[in-house]
Amino acid sequence: MNAVSEGILHEDLRLLLETSMPAKKKKALLGVADPKIGAAILEELGYQCQTGGVVAEILRGIRLHFHALVKGLTAQSASKAQLGLGHSYSRAKVKFNVNRVDNMIIQSISLLDQLDKDINTFSMRVREWYGYHFPELIKIVPENFTYCRVAKLVGNRRDLSEESLEGLEEILMDSAKARAVLEASRSSMGMDISPLDLINIESFSSRVISLSEYRRGLQEYLRSKMSQVAPSLSALIGEVVGARLISHAGSLTNLAKYPASTVQILGAEKALFRALKTRGNTPKYGLIFHSTFIGRAAAKNKGRISRYLANKCTIASRIDCFSEVPTSVFGDKLREQVEERLAFYETGEPPRKNLEVMKEAVVEASEVVAEVKRKQEKKEKKRKKREKKRLEALAAAAEEVENSVVEENNVEPRKKKKKKYQEPEAESEPEENGLEEEEEEEEEEEVVPKKKRKLRAEAGEEEEKKKKKKKKVSRASDSE
C-alpha cells in the first residue's frame, strides 16, 4: 500500500492487470476502493479506474460473501485466512530487535525509582529501631547503606571491643570514624536490648543491604541497555535522565516524534496546565532539570540552557531511533556543544556552529560504523566456521557408525557359512581333515560366545566316541 500510494505499482498487481486486460481495452473501467491505487494504475498502465459510490458497496459485498463465490472455500477457512493475514501483517510492521528494545529500559527505570523509595523507607526504619539501643551512631554515620552495615556488624554495643576496629574501618573507610563509634559505644545513653530483638534488627538490616546491592546491579544493567538502545541520548544527558524521558514518553519512537518544546517540559504537565489555567508563568523545565547542565547554569540562564538542552535531546533521540548502527559519537559532540554554550553564557566566548560539529560527527560516526560492521563480519565468519566444523564432525561420526554397522553385517554371514561347510566334511573325510577342523574350531572359539563353545565341545566329544567305536568294530572284523 505504501508503494502504491507513492505512485509505484507493485509488480504482482501490474502482471495481474496486464494478463487479465489486453492493451486494446484500456478504455474499460476498473473498480478500486482506494483512489490512490486508481491513480497509480492510471499513471503506470493507462487503465481508467472508478472509485467511490457503487464500487465501494460492490467490493464490500465481495468481501462479505467471498467464501460463497469461491468453490471449496468455507466461511471458517476464510476467517482463518484473514486472521493469519492480519498476524503476518502485524509481524511485518513490528520490527522486533532484541538488542534495541526500549521496554526493558522503561521497566528497569520504574523499578529503580521504586527501589530508591523503598530503601529510604527501610533505612529510616532501621535507624529508628536500632536508635533505641545506640542513638549516637546516627550522627557518626549519616549514610543509610553504611549505617545498616555498621548496625549489623556492631549488634550489641556492649560486645564492641578493640578487635572490632578492623571491621569498622573496612566498612567506614575511615579510622577516625571507627574510633569514634568505639568510644561512643562505651558511653552510650541507649537502652539495653534483648537477644531476640537484636536478631530481628540484624535480619532486617541484612535485607536492606541486599536490596541496596541489587539496586547497584540494576543500575549497571540500565547503563548497559541504554548504551545499546540510546547511546547518544545517554552520552548527552546521562543514563538515568534519558531512561526517565523514554519511560515518560512511552517509547524511544514517541520521544523522537516530540518537538523540543515538549521535551523541555516533559514531566511538568501539572505545572503547565495549572499555569495555563491561572494565567501564570509556565514551567521552564521538567525531567531534564535533573541533568548536571541546568544545575551548573546561573539562575538567569537556567531557562535558556534548558531550551538548548531540550533541542539537543530531541536530535539525539532521533539519531538513536532511526540509525541502523547505534553509536555514541553524536551524543559526545552534542554534549560538547552544550558545554560550549554554558561557557558562552558565563564568559562570552562564541561556540562552534552546529554545521561544523555535525560534519565532524558524521565523519567519526562513519569510521565507527565501519569498524563495528567489520567486527560483526568477523564474528559471523567465526560462527560459520564453528558451525561448519561441527557439521563435519557430525558427518564423520555418522560415517564411522555406518562403516562399523556394515563391517558387523559382513562378519556375521561368514560365521554361518563356516558352520554349514564343516558338517559334511566331518562325515565324509574324518581322518584327513582332522587337523583343519581343530584349527577352525580354535578360530571360531575366539568369536563364538561361551554357551555355543560348550555345545560344540560336547558335540565334538560325541563324534570322537563314535569314531572310536567305528575303529574298534573295523579292527575286530579285520582280525576275524
Brief summary of the model shown:
With 480 residues, this protein is mostly helical.
Task: Characterize the structure shown.
By secondary structure, the chain is mainly alpha-helical. It is built from 23 helices and two strands. The protein has helices at 2-5, 11-20, 35-45, 54-64, 66-69, 75-93, 103-131, 137-140, 144-154, 165-172, 175-186, 195-229, 231-237, 239-249, 252-257, 260-264, 269-278, 292-296, 302-322, 329-347, 354-428, 434-447, 450-479, and strands spanning 29-31, 48-50. A two-stranded parallel ribbon has the order 1-2. Helix 3 links the parallel strand 1 (29-31) and strand 2. Helix 7 (103-131) packs across helix 9 and helix 9 (144-154) runs antiparallel to helix 12. The longest helix has 75 residues, at 354-428. The radius of gyration is 44 Å and the shape is flat.
Secondary structure: elements and pairs:
Elements: H1 2-5, H2 11-20, E1 29-31, H3 35-45, E2 48-50, H4 54-64, H5 66-69, H6 75-93, H7 103-131, H8 137-140, H9 144-154, H10 165-172, H11 175-186, H12 195-229, H13 231-237, H14 239-249, H15 252-257, H16 260-264, H17 269-278, H18 292-296, H19 302-322, H20 329-347, H21 354-428, H22 434-447, H23 450-479
Parallel strand pairs: 1-2
Helix pairs in contact: 7-9, 7-12, 7-14, 9-10, 9-12, 10-11, 12-13, 12-14, 13-14, 13-19, 13-20, 19-20, 20-21
